[in-house]
Amino acid sequence: MKRIRLKVAAAAAAVLLLGPSAPAMAEPTTPLTYGAGTTATRFSGLAFDTCTAPTVAQMTAWKTSPYKAIGIYVGGVNRSCAQPQLTQSWVGSVTRMGWRLIPIYLGYQAPCTFRPNAVKITPASAAAQGALLAGDAVTQARKIGLLAGSAIYADMEHYNAADATCRATVLRFLSSWTKELHRRGFLSGVYAHQDSGARHLAEVYNSTAYARPDAVWIARWDGSSSLTGWPLISNRYWLIGQRAKQYQGDHTETYGGVTLNIDNDSFDAPVASVWYSYTVRTTIHTYSGPGTSYPIKGTIALNSGVRIVCQTFGPKIGVTTVWDKLIDGTYITDYYARTPTKPGYSAPIPGCSNPFQTTVDNLSRRHGPGTSYATYPGLLPIGSLAWITCQRPGSKVGTTSVWNRLSDGSYVTDYYVATTSNTTYSTPLRRC
């Protein structure tokens, strides 16, 4: 990572939708509750990170680069570069250009860290400190306009992997980090060296002693951007939009006449969620769901501004079936919003989805909401993210008849996904 220039248990049994008696809601899969006006944002592609966030002008120039996302240091006692650009105005400007943001929090480091002069975790207080720093990370992220549903990545620099006490301290710290972020409605990410932090997280992937982060971002400077085939980490771990890799370190690149010192990253993982400001071209109603059959929640006057967090589908109005979810959790038809694309979704607004970890191994994805539907090729390993767009009724599995429609159009039973209920629908997920 860019700062001071020195870098140094068994899986669950296979499930045929008739498996274990109840989904796990404690470690390693801990509860995550999203607020009404939230969504998660998944980014797949090349990214970069740099010590100090570039100016708006520099980010404009770098639109000609192959990168579409940038890592930003939102806080942490070990953050060593000033961040004069990190304001709500900057976030609004660069995200309107289409940039995705990857929040990084450089908090306490391992007691056996190789990073000089670092503020370190106190072994006896590791759990309390992990929760405390997660709370601060959320505060700092919200200050610059990042929404719940965002992923925040704890930066755990390389440390002595052979030190057993240090390993246990780091794992307790990161477990509490994950649980506190989940409690506050944020996704948990960890940036770590492949040979220390990432290796140790993989070793306890299925351990009931530690909460599992939703995504891992490894440091391995081998020049390969591949998100599979990582030594020490099974390809079955963090499989579904849960991986990132920093594959090249400190060097300079120039685009649009602007030179920056960067690290290279490859991503398919959750990043920050933000709102996008538009106006409406007539007086319209807001609804509790994406359609006029839902209760009316309010009225928005002609030319008033709206803050859109994501787009989803619903009944056709005018030329479009797109509906916009607003920051208060209500919906408006996209037909009357001055978004740039009709009838489809408008980049860079993401599609609405809320991911939750799966709680069993080898979970089937089906073509419809029931066990009678054909399966898709491939089974979801335990701990995969189910990127849920909506819920609907289907055949009963375990204690629930709820099925989740995923962002790829497939369905999984809600019984084996760590949503807030395994008997009924979970807020704020919409009905299909």
**CATH domain class of the largest domain:** Alpha Beta
Global structural class: alpha/beta
Number of separate helices: 5
Task: Specify the overall morphology.
Answer: globular
Mean pLDDT: 94
Report the CATH superfamily of the largest domain. Glycosidases
**Strand content range:** 25-35%
Low-confidence stretches: 2-24
Rg, please? 21 Å
Total number of domains = 3
**What is the CATH architecture assignment of the largest domain?**
Alpha-Beta Barrel
Order of helices and strands: EHEHEHEHEHEEEEEEEEEEEEE
Task: Give your account of this protein's structure.
The chain is an alpha/beta fold. It has 3 domains: 41-271, TIM Barrel (Alpha-Beta Barrel), CATH 3.20.20; 285-336, no CATH class; 354-413. Helices cover 14% and strands 30% of the residues. It contains 5 helices and 18 strands. The chain has helices at residues 56-61, 88-96, 126-143, 164-183, 197-203; strands at 41-49, 69-75, 100-105, 151-156, 187-193, 215-219, 243-255, 258-271, 276-279, 284-287, 296-300, 305-317, 320-326, 331-333, 354-357, 385-397, 400-406, 411-413. It is globular.
